[in-house]
């Protein structure tokens, strides 16, 4: 089964392919940037991004958005995570969160899928904390400042383990289930 994934982020494309390919889903990357709606409302952001992507491509595809929800900031930055990250970087982000009474965070991925008839969303979320100092490679955004619950290392330090436990994995598993169910309904 082939499915298009619109993303300009090579790290996301690689991670999505590593997770979905073993289950028989061939991810066809469409490397285009969509101007994202700037809002805390991630569902609205994903639906807007998906509508723009579908209008551009005209074929079934999916998009995703992953954000951090800091308990000490009443759930911010949410849909605005990329803006926070671009402005602060790893050191300042960790320092900002380190100054809060509560360093706990939820990492959440929302996938939007459009087959031309309907729009569906799939979510995956995991809890964690932000370390006082970033750790591990810094090439994939905030992986160096997220320690998933039950672990003592950041996503960046966990390497391949991240693919098994991440919020993106949970959302992609739900999405893949939908694709298989949809395929069985049509062909079976």
Structure in words:
With 188 residues, the chain is an alpha/beta fold. It has a single domain, classed as Maf protein. The protein has helices spanning 10-20, 42-57, 81-98, 155-158, 161-165, 167-187, and strands at 2-6, 26-30, 61-70, 104-114, 119-129, 147-148. The chain has a 6-stranded mixed sheet with strand order 2-1-3-4-5-6. The model has no long low-confidence stretch (mean pLDDT 92).
Key attributes of the depicted protein:
single chain, 188 residues, alpha/beta, Maf protein, 6-stranded mixed β-sheet, 6 helices, 40% helix, globular
Brief overview, please?
The protein is of the alpha/beta class and about 190 residues long. It is about 40% helix and about 25% strand.
Widest sheet, order of strands: 2-1-3-4-5-6
Order of helical and strand elements:
EHEHEHEEEHHH
Q: Give the mean pLDDT.
A: 92
Strand content: 15-25%
Proper CATH architecture: Alpha-Beta Complex
Uncertain segments are: none
Number of strands: 6
What structural class results from the helix and strand content?
A: alpha/beta
What is the 3D shape?
globular
User: What is the terminal separation in angstroms?
Assistant: 15 Å
Largest sheet: 6 strands, mixed
């Amino acid at each position: 089964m082939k499915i298009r994934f619109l993303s300009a982020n090579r790290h996301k494309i690689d991670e999505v392919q590593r997770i979905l390919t073993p289950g028989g889903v061939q991810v066809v990357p469409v490397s285009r940037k969509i101007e994202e709606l700037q809002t805390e409302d991630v569902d609205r952001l994903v639906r807007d991004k998906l509508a723009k992507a579908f209008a551009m491509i005209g074929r079934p595809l999916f998009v995703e958005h992953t954000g951090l929800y800091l308990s000490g900031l009443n759930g911010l930055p949410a849909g605005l995570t990329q803006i926070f990250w671009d402005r602060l970087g790893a050191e300042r982000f960790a320092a900002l969160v380190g100054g809060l009474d509560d360093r706990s965070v939820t990492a959440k991925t929302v996938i939007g899928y459009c087959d031309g008839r309907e729009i569906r969303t799939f979510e995956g979320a995991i809890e964690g904390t932000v370390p006082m100092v970033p750790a591990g490679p810094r090439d994939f955004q905030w992986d160096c400042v997220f320690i998933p619950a039950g672990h003592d290392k950041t996503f960046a330090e966990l390497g391949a383990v991240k693919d098994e436990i991440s919020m993106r994995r949970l959302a992609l598993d739900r999405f893949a289930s939908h694709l298989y169910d949809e395929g069985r309904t049509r062909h079976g």
